[in-house]
Predict the structure.
Amino acid sequence: MKRFLFLTLTLFTGAVSAQEWTRFRGPAGAGTSPDGNFPDNFSEKDFAWKITLPGEGVSSPVLWGTRLFLTSETTEPGQRAVLAYDAVTGRELWRVMDQFSSYGKHQFNSFASSTPCVDAGRVYLAWADGGNMKAMALSHDGKPLWTKDLGPYAEEHGSGASPILAGGVLIIAKDNAGTDSAILGLKPEDGSPVWKHPRQSVRTPFSTPLVIKQADGREAVILSGNPKALTCLNAADGKVLWEVENATPTDRPVASPVLAGDICYMTMGQGGTGKASVAVRITDPRPELVWQSKKGLPYVPTALGSSTRLYLLGDGGVLTCVNAADGKEVYSERVFTDKAYSSPVMVGDKIICTGRNGQVAMVAAGDQFKKLGEGQLGESTDATPAIAGGRLFFRTRTHLMCLPAATRPQP
């Protein structure tokens, strides 16, 4: 590996504009958007629209232009749906049904847990199906384009990692503790294999890769796992650029890795509790552990990163702000009394935290904890919100709703 390769890396936003929210936690997986001045306090009367979904799910919405795509279980056993809505009106545009063989899952998981990803021409999905995993692509009009059986996937808690696009490749984490565990790169056009990175896990991770841009302009992905805590792959060919060992290899990464300045951060745990973390400086030629912490860690929610700070929403509803360079605590304050599995997102200088009971807390970003206001979704939720076109989209267990910005949303 050439030494200059990692002198500068940045979160990749590419040609994706603020109008799009193309994957889990938006462009590059950062969970941030400059787009939208949303009210600090809101109730159901403030929603532009609210619709009933055909069943339950914990996946997040993704958007391209004014089209919103979402997955859902249905009330029929062995059936789930890919749904498209008009983001402005909430009108359903189409639905495509998917038949699947049931499999074991955690009581809080869903058969519609993986968030789709989308580009200008296609919507992509990666779903568990019985003891296997499959990938599929649809057109923006709901036309099935291709489906691929990716082979064995074994996990008693179900699946959770979402597909992403990077380096012109569709990347799927078929990472598990069973046989034929791997990270896969597929051609978006037809699902044919581009590369395969074998990766045997001690305990199946559920995190979704982070995308960064290398100094030479190429895209790379960073994945959480075990026994390797972090693995960085060149997105176009799957070659390993660097890896960092996991000091607690029996712990499971559920939250995704996140970038704060040049610090890449990940957490892991088990039994519903965050137990360990890893922070590395990715601008180093061979990234190594910079600091670790075992306090105030999220297990399910993914952290938020700014240039100098990390915001950690714990599963118990406490928001902790730490210095990204050394992990020193800036503050730790409770934002709501309920648990949180949804990952926080940031709009401008406002952090949006969502609790399992549907309570939403608006918190000011910065070194002083300040709760700006709150809202109520009226139903339990574990899904992470999406932000696009001056609209904030919440997905509860059985509903989808749109909160417009205080200023007029884009068309």
